[in-house]
Amino acid sequence: MGEMDELCYRVEQWDESGQRVEEIVAAAADLLVARAAYEATVKRRPGQFILLRHKARIINQSRQ
Question: What is the dihedral of CA 28, 19, 59, 46, to 10 degrees?
Answer without folding.
Answer: 80
